[in-house]
Each structure stands twice: as C-alpha cells, then as structure tokens.
Amino acid sequence: MSHLLTATCAVPAAGAVLTAALPAGSTEARRRTTKAVALGTSAVTLALAAAVAGQFDPDGARYQLTESYTWIRSFGISFSLGVDGIGTVLALLTAVLVPIVMLASWHDADPPGQDSPDGSFENRRRTQGFFALILAVEAMVIVSFYATDVFLFYVFFEAMLIPMYFLIGGFGDRAGGPESARQRSYAAVKFLLYNLLGGLVMLAAVIGFYVIAQDQGFGTFDLPTLTSAIADGKLVLSGTAEKALFLGFFFAFAVKAPLWPLHTWLPNAMGEATAGTAVLITAVVDKVGTFAMLRFCLGLFPDASKTFAPAILVLSLIGIIYGALLAVGQKDIKRLVAYASISHFGFIIMGIFAMTSQGQSGATLYMVNHGISTAAWMLVAGFLISRRGSRLIADYGGVQKVAPVLAGTFLIGGLATLSLPGLAPFVSEFLVLVGTFTRYPAIGIVATFGIVLAALYALLLYQRTMTGPVKAEVSAMPDLKARELAVVAPLVALTILLGVYPKPLTDIVNPAVDATLTQVHRTDPAPAHPVAGHPGAAPSGGEHK
Question: What is the pLDDT of residues 136-148, one digit of tens each?
Fold first, then answer.
C-alpha cells in the first residue's frame, strides 16, 4: 500500500499544528520564522501533490494510489483515499495556489503597530493563527479530493468551514472602513450558516443512503464498492428514494459551489475577506462543491442526475447571466470579482450536467483554469487596494501611468476572465459550450451571452481604474515589488501555458470523465452530417448510427 496520499494530506495538517504552536509573533523576527515554516510546509505539500500527479497513470485503474485504514468498523467507515484524474488535478491546483496565497498575504496578519511584547495576546498570535488556518484549509480540501469513503468526505467537507469562518471573520480586509469589523462578522456568520445548512441536509442524505444500502447487504461507505453495486444492479434505489437522496447531496454541493439562488453568501465573504482568503474561497474551497457533483451525485444517483439535469441546467444558465449582469453594475472591485465567479461557476455546473464528454472535460478544466485566472485577478486587485486603501472603483484612475506592471498583470487577469483566446479559460469555456450545445442547443446559445457580459465587466473595470487622468490619490502609487511579482508571475505563466497547450490536463481528466459518463449511462449525441454525398452522411430523414 502506498502512503503518498496520506503524506500529502498529513504534511499541511502537521504544519498547521506546528505553526500554531510556535512562540507568539511579538517581534518581526518571530513573525518571519512563522511565515517561513508555513511557506516551507506548503512547498513540501506541493512537491507531494506533484509526485501524486506524476505517479498517476491516466490509462490505469479508476482510483489509484489507494489507501484504506479502518476507522469505525461497526458502521463500515474507513479512512480510504484514492485518486482519479479529476481529483489529481484539483489537489495539485490547491497545492499550487496555497504557497502563492501565502506570499500574497505575507503582511496581511501583521499586528498593526504591535512590534513589541507588550501587545495584546490576540495581536501577538495573529500571524501564527492566520498561516495555521490556511494550512488547515489546505489539508482538509486535499483530503476531500482524495477521499473514497462517503462519510470521510462528509467530515472534511464540513470541517473546512471552521478555519474558513475564522479567516473571514478574524482576518478581514483592512480597506473596509470603520464598519469593517461588523461587516466581517456578518459575512463570516452568513458563510457558516449557509454552508452548515447544506451540510446538515447532506448528513441526512448520507444516513438515509447508508440505511438503504445496509438493508441490501452493503453496510459500507466505500465509494467504489457502492458505485459498482449500483452499476451492476446489486444495489437498487427506488425512484423516489434516489431523487430525495440526490437532492440532499446536491443541495449541499450547490451551496458550496455556489449555484444561483444559493449564492448570496459569496459576495459578502469575498468582499470582506483579505484578497488571499478570497482566493481560497473561490479558487479552492468552492471547487470541492463542483468536484463532488461529479464524483458523488453522478456516481451514486445516475438516474436522478439525468432526471434533474434540465432543471439544474436552467439554474446554471440563470447564474451565468445573473452573475455577469451584477458584476457589470458593481462599484466594489472585490464584489465584482465575486459576482464574476458566480457566473463562471454557472458554466462549470452547466458543463457537468450537460453530460457530454466535451462538457465534463471542459467543466473540469474550468475548475483549474478559473482557479488560476481568478487568483491572478483577485491578488493583483488586492495589491491595488492595499496601496490605495479603498475597494471602490471610483477611487481609482490612471493607474497604468504610475504602475504599468501592476496595470498590465491586472489586464491579463481580466482578459483571462473574459476567456480571451490563447488564455486558459477560453479552452474550458469553449468545451463547455460545445458540449452543452450538442445536447441542449437553446441553453448553449443563451449561455454565450455570458461571454459578452464578461467582456463588458472586465474591460469596464480596467478602463475605470487603470486608464484616464491620474487621480491625485494614486499619483505616488508604487509598482509591483519583487515579492508581488513572484506571486503573479507563475499565475500568468500558467494562464498562458494552459491556454495554448492544455493537453497534459486533458490527458489526465478525460478517462475519469468517460468513466463518469459510463456510470450515468450517457454517450455523446451523434453528430449530424447534413452535406449530401459526404461519406459519413446519413440518408435524408435518417439518423446517424
């Protein structure tokens, strides 16, 4: 048995404990030590996640590098880990983004003016707490991507809410104004309540599923065992039971994703959090929801997934247009990025439930590419906001004349968000739209308006902040520093690389997508051949076989 997956999960967890236990950061030297330990831990985690990706064989078994340790024997619960192509790339995305977030957030938890041992205990422990919480989130997210036990997944799916709650509520954006503490508290509580509600509904569904499975001789939470039994007809769910259980799981994942109309917690959370925490929310934590739709909803409830797919596609379409329209009208930079993310998650969910190989491959790539491009856009926005001390778009103007590198990287992030050809999100969005159009042409056509609106909000944001006369308040704004360039450079490089050469990712995820479609008994719609006399053309009035 390989222990590589356990090590990948354990290192950030151990790093979180070690970081929290370090001596209080009452001096700059101690704070530097804390940050170095946390960053080093994230670098080791990245190396381990890369090793997992290197050892994964796309042509091999569905779940690889498997590990299983008995946890609660009487209920058939185990600490079981295994990776498919989708989990591999999403865990690697997480491991790539966490050290970048740490570098971007290097001074976000420094006590304001508290550089001596006589500061309050809360101020002296801020640095340890902040970086320990980031590592805790990383550990829990990676376990969620690797878990092959339904109950194990549920535990970490819920547990990650705790460190995220404290990151949002305790370490908020200092540009929020005098009401920022109250607003942070509201955003954190709203985030927690929404996601806890989704988790409690899922818990009821998990228990109900276990009871039904146990009655048929499958007293286990092991996902491969359960999906195989369902596919072979050995574990049978009645139509009503399957639909109810599907809705229980899907509700929790739709809140986490977030899908309209369960999205309202996201703009508050991203608006009040630091830029680094906002990236963790939308680029890392929220991806667990869309990933779980593929792994659990489609795997455990194939018939119900097909039944509810049209309704979910309509909700996704509403989310695409609604999120983009609200992004156009935003006055707050970070809330604009949040609403843009809601629109993008609509594309991801649409690709999943179109149930075509192009749609699901595009959705998986979209999870990765959205994580990279939104991280670049949001982190540069964070650098901008930290210099000016305001999140309001109207407080900026002419930045490109005084900070051209900052403006240029901000533009690249915006162009990636609107899916400019040659940048990574374009490939994903194209596949999602093609995959949706082949089965649901009307939805695919309407969804393309989301691209038009994305161009509108991204370019308007750039125009209003970076071009025009230089406002007095930004006339002395410094350009990106070495640490900030180290944050942005890898994200820009990945955005370009995956835009022109996505094959390494598609080679890994496509076999997992094919296996998922097999589970739901779906095949791609046959292409039409309207040209008479074409060698593959169907006879007039006929159907392609």
Answer: 999 999 999 999 9
